[in-house]
Amino acid sequence: MPLCKKILHDPKTEILVWKITETLAQLSFDVPLNEYSKARLLGMKSVTHQCGFLSVRKLLQEKGYTDFDLYYDEFGKPHLKDGRHISISHSHQFSTIILSDQNCGIDLEMQRQKIIKIAHKFSEHEFDFLKDLNENNYIRLLTVIWGAKEAVFKIRNEVGISFKDHIHLAPFSIDRKEALALLKFGSIQLEYPIFFEEIENFTLVYAFQK
Fold first, then answer.
1. CA–CA distance, 68 with 71 (Å, rounded to integer)
2. How far apart are CA 135 and CA 109, in angstroms?
3. CA 162/CA 66 separation, integer angstroms
4. How far apart are the first and last CA of the chain?
5. What pLDDT does 29 receive?
6. Could you report the per-residue pLDDT of 179-195, keeping only the tens digit for each?
7. Are 109 and 147 in contact (CB under 8 A)?
8. What angle do CA 143, 144, 147 make, to 5 degrees?
9. Torsions phi, psi for 96 (to 5 deg)
10. What pTM does this model have?
């Protein structure tokens, strides 16, 4: 399936989403890879992960890039050779990238009930505004919170940052599709505007460093 969603956040920032309906063979035929990426792909045991990896390269092609324009630093953060900022995520049958002139991070998560059981591992401060919600809205908000913290971590990309202890979200509403995250880590204190969309039963979250 071709590109299923495009979000023009601003004139210099674009988010692309791919819904994976192709087989691994189809994606492999369509996507040329550099030697590093070939080795990464062969090391993946899950066909789902392999398809996600290749579909990200399909999204790059939508913007005139190939896998040969992409590289990863020593911390595993992706970069484009032309200097534009990029962040990548994939989950089950969806993949996404964000391209921007700003430092940015993106995450894509399926909305699942099991997030309730693990919420204590990545949230504490946020429970103050999660009270008295029905289960569906609770899951939706928790998924945004997890995705926002993941997106912030991808921007900062620093060892030792704890989602629970160092990244906090201010109270927000699902309807507004915006939030604010604060990173407090050592002497660092930074704010990150958060934006999110729901696609089928998935939540797409992206963040920028102010």
1. 8
2. 17
3. 33
4. 35
5. 94
6. 999 999 999 999 999 99
7. yes
8. 85
9. -155, 150
10. 0.95
